[in-house]
Write a structure and sequence with these properties.
single chain; alpha/beta; inorganic pyrophosphatase (n-terminal core); Diaminopimelate Epimerase, Chain A, domain 1; 2 domains; six-stranded mixed β-sheet; 13 helices; globular
Length: about 325
Amino acid sequence: MKDFLNYLKKLSGKVVILSHQNADVDAIASSIALKEAITTYNSRATVDIGVANGTSKVSKRIAEELGDNFIVNPNLDTDLVILLDTSTLRQLSPISENIKKASKIAVIDHHSPHEETRGIADFYIVEEFSSVAEVVYKLILEMEVPVGKKIGLALLLGIISDTGHLRYATSDTLKTIASILDSGIDFASAVELLETPKDKSQKIAQLKAAQRMKIIKMDGWIIVASHVGSFEASSASALVKLGADCAFVGSENNGKITLSVRASPDFQRSTGIHLGSDLMQGIGTSIGGGGGGHPGAAGAKGAGSVEEILEECIRQVSMLLKNGTKS
């Protein structure tokens, strides 16, 4: 971190903060906070926010609320590219190959370390916090940049969003939130900004996921698998809310697979299974793509048959339960 800040302080040029496909609130809000901090830390640096192939609807709205914008598939022939909230290059399609055009590459992330991004990075700042906003907050403290209302609100939005409205927050997360709130940020206002009514297509996807799900009782746990046309992540979360301990939901479009998995807090605590590093990294590689994520929320992309891949997910989680369960 100190080497990165020393480089950043001397930089006189262009910086692009780049995050993954369909960038979520944590990625966009943290990018905005980091942009504000860098331009305060070094007024000679010019900073753009970029995303690979677009953002979620709520992320776009949050960027507008914070008074900032982003560039889809930006030019990466620049002095520094900061890969934010991105564990593998597969998440940067269709511009992943352009990363190498940058003079320097920094990785700032909170997922399990991945050798692919570690191998290309000049600076590698990865800590397994609940959100990338917490990593950015720690970096901002090292910069000694004041956490004003814009930075504070952006960080708070990222944390609330990526912890499932604090369901997956740690004691360190809550300490960070308390420190941010001391900057004069209103917690209730931040939560209100994140409240977005579900559209009909999302509701239908979640109902179809429930209708199609396969239920497996495994070592005292309820594991489910289902498939939808879209909204894999929210459908997996909905199945956990219905009562599943671990839910796999996949979609298949033109041979391309998107897979999401979610687990209940009890499943995470009791089994010790890390959905990102223990499951989705290997699954992503096996389907010719990439994967990763958090202990209780992860995903993968690749190619193949969604039914076969869901069966493989069930087989893998069965092996992990037999070999590494705490309970």
